[in-house]
């Protein structure tokens, strides 16, 4: 079955700097890769996703890249702000899969 | 209006008790899920229902029984609670059963078993 590994588990960056979170997946059939942000005391919320026919996607300060050959995908946050502090999850699935598999999460802290 | 709501938000109970968590979504989605998040924040799917039909049943103890009275509601009943059941339980919904659509999560129910 699918396995998603996520690194690092914790990340601390200075406000204004960039943050990068990396994930790898095992099932070559996976074609959908969402990223969720979980703020303290709340449920995860989708912030960006990418499908396998695209190599990169941007939404303002957030970008995701996908390397299907290497089975890697990454989240890039530029010009980090205090409100970016949260736990971030990557995930992988394909349309006929029985379940979506989440990575283990990255706790991102933004230092003022 | 809250898209996915859960009640209660906090649940503290003793070992051996039976408890239920309720979930409702007003998004008109066909598919609903239950996830368990442990103390290390690991998020794992437990069950999924599509139009009241069970489609995913992970290796969850049969003390956990989901029930979907209609496609807008998915409740979770837990019998004979154990210490290891302590976790945050999230309900989620998505447009349909294809796992390439956004999942909308509820605020979570923090279950503490003493």
Characteristics:
heterodimer, A: 112 residues, mainly beta, six-stranded mixed sheet, five-stranded antiparallel sheet, 54% strand, B: 114 residues, seven-stranded mixed sheet, four-stranded antiparallel sheet, 11 strands
Describe this structure in words.
The complex is a heterodimer of chains A (112) and B (114). Chain A is mainly β. Chain A contains no helices and 11 strands. With 114 residues, chain B is an all-beta fold. Chain B has strands spanning 4-7, 10-13, 19-25, 31-37, 43-50, 53-57, 64-70, 73-78, 87-94, 103-105, 109-113.
**Rg of chain A to the nearest angstrom?**
13 Å
Structural category of chain A is: mainly beta
Approximate helicity band of chain B? under 10%
User: N- to C-terminal separation of chain B?
Assistant: 34 Å
Decide which structural class fits the backbone of chain B.
mainly beta
The pLDDT mean of chain A sits at 94
Order of helices and strands of chain B: EEEEEEEEEEE
Task: Quote the beta fraction of chain B.
Answer: over 45%
H/E element sequence of chain A: EEEEEEEEEEE
Fraction of residues in β-strands of chain A: over 45%
The pair of chains with the biggest contact is: A-B, 27 and 22 residues
Oligomer: heterodimer
SS elements, strand count of chain B: 11
Number of helices of chain A: 0
- Low-pLDDT residue spans of chain B: none
Quick overview of this protein structure:
By secondary structure, chain A is mainly β. Chain A contains no helices and eleven strands. In chain A, strand 6 and strand 7 (62-67) form a beta hairpin.
Topology:
The complex is a heterodimer of chains A (112) and B (114).
Chain A: E1 4-7, E2 10-14, E3 19-25, E4 32-38, E5 45-51, E6 56-59, E7 62-67, E8 72-77, E9 86-92, E10 101-102, E11 106-111
Parallel strand pairs in A: 2-11
Antiparallel strand pairs in A: 1-3, 3-8, 4-5, 4-9, 6-7, 7-8, 9-10, 9-11
Chain B: E1 4-7, E2 10-13, E3 19-25, E4 31-37, E5 43-50, E6 53-57, E7 64-70, E8 73-78, E9 87-94, E10 103-105, E11 109-113
Parallel strand pairs in B: 2-11
Antiparallel strand pairs in B: 1-3, 3-8, 4-5, 4-9, 5-6, 7-8, 9-10, 9-11
């Amino acid at each position: 079955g699918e396995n998603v590994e996520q690194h690092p588990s914790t990340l601390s960056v200075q406000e204004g700097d960039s943050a990068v979170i990396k994930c790898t997946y095992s099932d070559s059939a996976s074609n959908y890769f969402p990223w969720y942000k979980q703020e303290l005391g709340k449920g995860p919320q989708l912030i960006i996703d990418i499908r396998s026919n695209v190599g990169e996607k941007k939404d303002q300060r957030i970008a995701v890249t996908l390397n299907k050959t290497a089975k890697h995908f990454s989240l890039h946050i530029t010009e980090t702000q205090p409100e970016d502090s949260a736990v971030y999850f990557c995930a992988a699935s394909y349309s006929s899969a029985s379940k979506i598999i989440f990575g283990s999460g990255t706790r991102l802290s933004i230092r003022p | 209006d809250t898209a996915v709501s859960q009640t209660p938000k906090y649940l503290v109970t003793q070992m051996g008790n039976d408890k239920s968590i309720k979930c409702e979504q007003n998004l008109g989605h066909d598919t609903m899920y239950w996830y368990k998040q442990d103390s290390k924040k690991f998020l794992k799917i437990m069950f999924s229902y599509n139009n009241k039909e069970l489609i995913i049943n992970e290796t969850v103890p049969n003390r956990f029984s989901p029930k979907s009275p209609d496609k807008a509601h998915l409740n979770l009943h837990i019998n004979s609670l154990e210490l290891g059941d302590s976790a945050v339980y999230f309900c989620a919904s998505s447009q349909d059963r294809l796992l390439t659509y956004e999942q909308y999560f509820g605020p979570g129910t923090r279950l503490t078993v003493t």
